[in-house]
Structure formats: structure tokens, C-alpha cells
């Protein structure tokens, strides 16, 4: 006999206690039996409603108990601080940020009375300056074409679903994301776990190929060109993304325990059912920057000339420079680069990796953008960015620093109902989003959540358009670093164009980047034939040892 989950205990007691109290009241009338009948019947009715309603997955998974959380959340910040979640650096997003996504996902007003919740005098506060000549924007469906000149280019929306694999997210969560992407006309990145049946609901797909080559691997775990071509030529797959590294855990592979490799996951990933699956830290299909360019060209040919790009968390700058040199020397390049900031999220990773490994998004994006500009490649290589992109201002800020579009993972998870319970790695996600537990995941209502996914993306686009119009701009391409302002101290503010350095077009080719220290140190000595540290750095190390 299956054991009753603890989360249903109060509901079960209410169902049992209600008829017992009613019988007791009938046999021996008294206020005690009456009070008990009232309490248990109310709880039983509440729990029954929780299970059969479709709007709140947490309530469906935690009948009756979930209302305690909602009650505490309705109190002021003093109560929340001690009983819900403390707004410290340990919590990736504040309650206000989550609330913004929830309101937009549900299609409710995201307006509020009184003033800003932010301390505008605090160092680090950022904003956009409005114009006395605001503009009117008729269409907020902002797009950029990726793969110009290819046989099958793709028009990408300004905000899309970042990589989250089937296996990390539940079948219902993946289904809702893909349905929402289909309805809203934006893309859904598969993550490195392969293309599952739940990705095939009509939404545009970006197929992410990781070091495990899931969905396109042979029995030894190596890249299989035939299997890749079978899926890459599918009309639903609009672009291919080679994952070199991930912001939350760069340089770290993964292991999916055999107990979690179900028949569905095994079929999706192309691995044996019930056996542990290792995702290596590095790719086996290439070992040098020049070979990576060759692999990109191979995938482009196998996919029918669809756009092929890379995703990476920037680490050693000379490695990125070596890749750009390979692009220049080979006369070939990825169609896009997705920059994953070091503050990006994941279902599970070592704490030190999450906190202390990988370049933050601002620095990484600036380095990628500046290098491509200086190498004369920026017009041909599109740049996307992901890492804690939630609001329209987050999008505007990222575009102003050089990105063409943004990807968001956590924002779309919030729109599915994620409450940041931070139990993704335990398989006990209360909202049914990050779990393979069929009982929990199946309670996430796909049509309803798909609608909320669509609403969140559309509302964020609309808010972006309103912010652009207020600043006197008519399109995101007009955003520049001069439009974003940061308070450096309580007595000084600076715009991004004065706060950060920007490289002139073709400056690296012409040898005119010496005033930028990172290029002066590593650009000349980086090699398209190796990821190795440049000789100048090795010489510096040796001199310190003498």
C-alpha cells in the first residue's frame, strides 16, 4: 500500500475528522463536536478545492498547508523576513521581482501607488533618463535577424526562453514553456538534455548541443553526424547552439544518476535506460579554436544551412581572443554568441562554482562585444545575453551594453509558478516546475501556465517599448551606453559610455587597442591553434618565481 505523502496529512486528517465530528454531534450534541465539525469540514472543503483548482500548483501539491505560506506572505516585510525568506544575497531574486513577473504573467496591472521601492541614493543604483520629447511606438514585437545570408535565417524576438533541459524541468513545465513560446512567437532553448516530446508543441526551438551530445551521440558518447542531421533538419528547430560552458557552473560536467534516467529521458538523450549518464566538462568533437570553427561549419551544413552559434561563460580572455582569431583567419564565424553571465542560475551546482567562478554578465558582455567590434565581425555575429534578466529595464540595460537580444530562465520559471523554494536538486519542487516526480509535476496545468508564459513575455516587451518611448527612442537598436546611468557614490553619477571603455571598429585588426589593457596584454599572443595561455603570461609567471 503506497504511503501517504506528508504534504497531504492535514487534508487527510480533515477528511477523516469531519465525518467523525458530525457523527459525534448527531449522537451527543455539544459545542465541542460542533466546533470540531466546523474546523474539520472547513479544512476538508479547502483541501478539496485546492486539489481540483488549476491556478496554483503549490496548493495542488500542498492542499491546506499552502495557505499558511500565503497568509504569512500577506503580512508585512517584518513577518516575511523571519518566516518566509530573508532578502539577503542568498536569495537570487527579491519578492518584489517575483511579484512583478507574477503580475505580468497573470495579465494583471503591474502598477503601484506611492514612490519607488529602491533607494535611489544608494551606490550602484541604475536608471534610464527620460526625454522631454517622448516617442510613440506602434509595434513592440522587436526582432533581429540571425544568419543573414544563410539559407534559413531566423528572426529572433528581443526576449526568449533560456536553456532549461527536460530532466531538470518536469514534462508539464517544458510543455507549458513550448506552448507559450508558440503562442507568443519567441523561441524556446531546449537546454543540453535533447529534444523531448514535450518540446514538440509548435514552439520555435533552439537546439542546444552540449558536451554529452544528447540526442546526437553514438554508443560511446561521441558526436554522431547522422543522428544530429535527423533532428536538426526538423522545421521546429530554427537554430543550433553549441554549449561550451554555463554561467552557473563553467568548466563543470554533470552526472545524471541511473535512477533518474527514465525511459522518456533515455529516449530523449539517446542513452541506455537506468544507467548513469556523464556529461563531460569538455567537448570531444574539437580541441582547438580552429577545430571549433570547423565543427560550427559542419553543423551548419548538416542542418540545412540554419544559423549555428555558441554559448559560453567568459573565463580566460585569451581563450575568447583565440576563438575570434580563428574566426578571422578561417573566414568563418558562428552566426551568434550567447554570453552567459557568472550569476546565471542552475538546478544544482557546487556552491563555490555558483558564487566564485565565471565572469559577471556586464564584464563578459562588454568583452565579447568589444572584441567582435575590434575584429570587424560584429555586424556578422549577433550577440545574446542571459543571467538574471527579469524586467524590461534588465533587457534595456543589457541591450545598451551591446546585446542584440536577451534570454531569461528564472523569469519564465516564475511565470510557471516557481516560488524559489530552492529544492530543484531534491526532486521535491512544490510548484511542479523542477521535478521528475510525476505526482508533483502533473499538477502543473499546461494550458494555464502556457498562457502565463506568453503574457509575461508580451508584457515585458510592452514595458520595454514604454521605457524606450519615454526616453525618446523608437527601437531597441537605438539604445546605447549613454542611455543607462549608474550612481557611483552618493555624490557622483556616470553614464555607461563614460564608465566603461569601448573599442573602435577594426581597432584590433589595425593594432590600435593598446589603450585597453586586457587587449594589450593578451590579444597579440593569443593563437587560433590553441586554448593555451599566451607566452607573455607564462613569461610573467616565470619571472615571479625567480
Overall description:
- It is a single chain.
- This protein is an alpha/beta fold and 546 residues long.
- It folds into two domains: 6-83, no CATH class; 143-496, TIM Barrel.
- Helices cover 40% and strands 12% of the residues.
- The chain has 20 helices and 15 strands.
- The strands form four sheets. An eight-stranded parallel beta sheet has the order 4-13-12-11-10-7-6-5.
- The radius of gyration is 26 Å and the shape is globular.
Task: Give a brief description.
40% of the residues lie in helices and 12% in strands. It has helices at 9-27, 31-52, 57-61, 65-74, 77-83, 95-105, 171-184, 225-232, 263-269, 289-302, 317-330, 351-356, 361-374, 392-400, 410-416, 438-441, 446-470, 496-499, 517-522, 535-545, and strands at 126-128, 143-146, 154-157, 159-161, 187-189, 204-209, 237-243, 254-256, 277-279, 308-312, 336-340, 382-386, 405-408, 484-489, 492-495. Residues 75-90 and 542-546 have low confidence and may be disordered.
Amino acid at each position: 500500500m503506497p504511503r501517504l505523502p506528508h504534504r497531504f496529512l492535514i487534508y487527510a486528517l480533515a477528511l477523516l475528522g469531519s465525518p467523525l465530528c458530525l457523527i459525534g454531534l448527531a449522537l451527543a450534541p455539544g459545542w465541542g463536536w460542533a466546533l470540531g465539525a466546523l474546523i474539520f469540514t472547513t479544512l476538508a472543503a479547502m483541501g478539496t478545492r485546492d486539489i481540483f483548482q488549476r491556478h496554483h500548483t503549490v496548493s495542488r501539491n500542498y492542499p491546506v498547508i499552502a495557505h499558511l505560506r500565503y497568509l504569512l506572505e500577506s503580512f508585512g516585510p517584518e513577518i516575511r523576513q523571519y518566516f518566509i525568506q530573508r532578502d539577503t544575497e542568498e536569495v537570487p531574486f527579491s519578492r518584489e521581482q517575483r511579484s512583478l513577473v507574477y503580475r505580468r504573467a497573470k495579465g494583471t496591472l503591474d502598477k503601484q501607488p506611492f514612490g519607488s521601492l529602491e533607494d535611489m541614493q544608494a551606490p550602484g543604483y541604475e536608471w534610464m533618463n527620460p526625454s522631454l520629447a517622448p516617442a510613440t511606438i506602434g509595434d513592440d514585437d522587436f526582432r533581429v535577424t540571425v544568419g543573414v545570408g544563410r539559407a534559413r535565417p531566423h528572426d529572433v524576438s528581443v526576449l526568449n526562453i533560456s536553456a532549461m533541459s527536460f530532466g531538470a524541468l518536469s514534462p508539464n513545465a517544458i510543455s507549458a514553456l513550448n506552448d507559450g513560446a508558440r503562442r507568443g512567437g519567441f523561441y524556446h532553448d531546449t537546454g543540453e538534455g535533447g529534444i523531448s516530446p514535450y518540446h514538440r508543441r509548435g514552439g520555435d526551438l533552439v537546439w542546444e548541443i552540449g558536451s554529452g551530445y544528447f540526442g546526437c551521440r553514438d554508443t560511446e558518447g561521441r558526436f554522431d553526424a547522422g543522428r544530429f542531421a535527423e533532428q536538426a533538419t526538423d522545421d521546429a528547430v530554427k537554430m543550433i547552439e553549441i554549449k561550451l560552458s554555463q554561467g552557473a557552473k563553467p568548466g563543470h560536467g554533470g552526472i545524471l544518476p541511473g535512477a533518474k534516467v527514465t525511459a522518456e529521458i533515455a529516449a530523449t538523450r539517446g542513452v541506455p535506460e537506468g544507467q548513469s549518464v556523464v556529461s563531460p566538462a569538455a567537448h570531444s568533437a574539437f580541441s582547438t579554436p580552429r577545430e571549433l570553427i570547423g565543427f560550427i561549419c559542419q553543423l551548419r551544413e548538416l542542418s540545412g544551412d540554419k544559423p549555428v552559434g555558441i554559448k559560453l561563460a567568459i573565463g580566460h580572455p585569451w581563450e575568447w581572443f583565440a576563438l575570434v582569431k580563428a574566426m578571422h583567419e578561417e573566414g568563418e564565424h558562428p552566426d551568434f554568441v550567447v554570453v552567459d553571465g557568472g550569476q546565471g542560475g542552475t538546478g544544482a551546482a557546487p556552491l563555490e562554482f555558483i558564487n566564485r567562478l565565471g565572469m559577471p554578465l556586464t564584464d563578459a558582455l562588454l568583452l565579447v562585444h568589444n572584441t567582435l567590434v575590434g575584429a570587424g565581425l560584429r555586424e556578422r555575429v549577433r550577440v545574446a545575453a542571459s543571467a538574471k534578466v527579469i524586467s524590461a529595464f534588465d533587457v534595456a540595460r543589457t541591450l545598451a551594453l551591446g546585446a542584440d537580444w536577451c534570454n531569461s530562465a528564472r523569469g519564465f520559471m516564475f511565470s510557471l509558478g516557481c516560488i524559489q523554494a530552492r529544492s530543484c536538486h531534491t526532486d521535491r519542487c512544490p510548484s511542479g516546475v523542477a521535478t521528475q516526480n510525476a505526482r508533483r509535476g502533473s499538477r502543473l496545468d499546461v494550458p494555464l501556465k502556457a498562457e502565463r508564459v506568453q503574457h509575461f513575455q508580451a508584457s515585458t516587451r510592452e514595458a520595454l517599448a514604454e521605457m524606450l518611448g519615454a526616453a525618446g527612442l523608437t527601437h531597441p537598436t537605438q539604445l546605447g551606453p549613454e542611455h543607462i546611468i549608474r550612481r557611483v557614490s552618493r555624490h557622483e553619477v556616470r553614464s555607461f559610455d563614460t564608465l566603461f571603455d569601448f573599442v573602435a571598429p577594426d581597432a584590433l585588426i589595425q593594432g590600435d587597442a593598446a589603450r585597453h589593457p586586457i587587449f594589450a596584454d593578451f590579444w597579440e599572443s593569443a593563437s587560433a591553434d590553441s586554448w593555451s595561455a599566451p607566452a607573455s603570461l607564462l613569461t610573467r609567471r616565470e619571472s615571479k618565481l625567480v
